[in-house]
């Protein structure tokens, strides 16, 4: 899918590292949202940034984009100095647009800010399949349409690095499949994608490598192949947080516990369903067996170098295609 | 920065609320500046403010003062809302992150916004002058009064002063929105200050207490009122009066403008965008 260099080589040569953080830390009073994070995303790869609610994903991405000032540590995107977002496109959390403007005019306004020509607006609307409704006011858009417009905005600059924070939030199964297919297409082209998610199945479907963040720390980093093979990703989550969470999630939680009364988030997108359930089961077992490190109200994701005894992870649908549209 | 300015202009122009505010401003300005005095001339004004000013006060030669009269208080309040809307909306809709991830630095976005707002403030003031000119001309024709326009110098000075006062209120609205990171509270507090607190200080407390009288000399509204008065605005209009010399008033208003913009820029560049 991508021709990313093997591990350890991404600093070599003239290739700039798309995303590099050194000891990145953010503290909000008592809360250590991000804790000495060292992240390295390689050119051309789709990197999954996986973690439960409150793990520090969004805070990290905000720091990458200069929206939030790190307490300490450094950030470099595409080898440029902090704050320079040339060639970077991003969608952070829920999309934010002007409700009184149409989808197209929202993008036109952003294109002005970005110094991008008007034809590009038409292109990205086409890419996210929003052309038909692009003349309607943003306020009248459905959740999924808003999310797609957010992705369109992220694509405006024809970015070399795309930072997406839970881009499938609010999308129906078909929309999710569409979005994942789009991310894979972008990853297969020149674009490097940093994708945050709390859906293990999603990350496994679209990503080349996965970094797992918990309590602000990078607790594991693996290729998806490794995750599928020898290493079992074990998720341990504190039940209170699961109950408190209103979002659909899979990190050790019951599938479909999103409380939205609709199909579970990955419904219809292939093989991740069973895997997630198994991951959840393992998680609950792991929690009983190994509660160390949990604390009230905090989700914890850990990886254990446990050989996959039953080989059940190997039977997964082929990477990159199972959710295709 | 030009791109950001155009982007902000598009947003200002396409936002229905701004047109609504302009309409209200024109209606208020004509009502208090011309129609009520006109009713007074015809003997139908009763006790309404400005109803005893006489025909001479609403003829074309008084255009500058009449156009500036509202700016210290009620037109100022509308301009403050315009400024707060332009900045505060970004917080409410979560659009700061959308705009800032497109590239431009925060200060460039703010500069673009302020340029666009400055353009709008000029249009606003020109509209007050334009509608005032039309109305006073119509009144002069109807009443068979002479149509004598102010000199170009007076007009230019009036426009300049009006623009300066307008900019100050717009930037106060913008600053409040940045400080409070929202829309409702900045507008509420700004209006309470402008329409209630400042008015009480200027017209009630100052004549009674020496130190309040001193403090009044430094208030943005009082200086805006002095500047308007020095260019012919009627002292019977709320907020207008010779509280300070025109030179001092101009400097203080310009000083507030710079302070509001500087403080807003400093806060915006320092704080996290959530
Ligand atoms: N502005 C803030 N002030 C105080 N605490 C904050 C702030 N922003 C984030 N946090 C805290 O930092 C931690 C990480 O939050 P963050 O939003 O980065 O998590 P996340 O991994 O994106 O979670 P989710 O999957 O729910 O989006 C949380 O404990 C959160 O409460
Ligand atoms: Mg988040």
TrEMBL record, chain B:
The transmembrane residues are 21-41, 73-93, 114-140, 160-180, 187-209, 249-268
A single GO molecular function term of this UniProt record: ABC-type transporter activity
UniProt keywords (A-Z) are: Membrane, Transmembrane, Transmembrane helix
Taken from the UniProt entry, a GO cellular component term is: plasma membrane
What is the name listed in the Swiss-Prot or TrEMBL entry for this protein?
A: ABC transporter permease
Q: Which source organism?
A: Streptomyces oceani
